[in-house]
Fold:
Amino acid sequence: MHKISSNSLFVGKNIIHLPKCHSTNTLAAELLSWGNVQEGTIIVADHQTAGRGQRGSTWESEPGLNLTFSLILKPTFLAPNEQFFLTIVSSLAVQAVIRAETSSCKVKWPNDLYAGERKICGMLIENTVRGSRIDSAVIGIGLNVNQQAFTNPGAVSLRQLTGQVYDLSRLLDLLAQQLEAKYLLLKAGGHSQLKSAYLENLFGLGTERDFEDAEGVFRGKINGVTGQGQLLIEKTSGQLCTYAFKQVRFLHP
Ligand code: BTN
Structure:
């Protein structure tokens, strides 16, 4: 049973904790479609049987060892072309919680959290747009916490990094506080402050590495991110390229 003991105003005030479900994001979307779901509701599952990842992939997590949850927001103050700010808010919130445990954590564009070259958290953010506003958002977060081994060598958990065993409820509480604080900052118009913080914490900013786009493998360095969340990479040839999600892949450093 997870309980949010923090002083949060609305994030996590309503927690739906399930021992098992298909996907917390799918369930959150279902709840939204039935209407009458309170903003800030968190659905957390000990075990997802069909956890969804980005690019249509699946999200694997050993039951009971990690955090897999979805937060429902109603950011009607945002226009569809400001969706990326929800990515910024969520990434920075999770990063702040990880950073308190281990200093090496960066945001890998657009919204993965990396410790060194290994992924510790993935997010699936699904928005519903109505007219010129974002009607609702489901922020799905998979944070590797106490799992000690992964089949994917590119994954890592907090426990592997620090040697500690974590209380999942306490971490969820901290995440709720951070998510609320950053979301309220956005609501209050803190766009440029959030964007600067995102860039300061961006994995690979200004460092040369290999990437792959539709034209093949190339070397370059990340220059920044556009207001709508596209990645800017300067190729070693000097060409500045703009990429939407899925148009570029990070390869070796
Ligand atoms: C990724 O990096 O591919 C995104 C992973 C997102 C996983 C989380 S776990 C909780 C929520 N429910 C889902 O089905 N997916 C997200």
Summary: The chain is about 25% helix and 30% strand. The helical segments are 24-34, 84-99, 158-162, 168-187, 191-200. The longest strand covers residues 118-130.
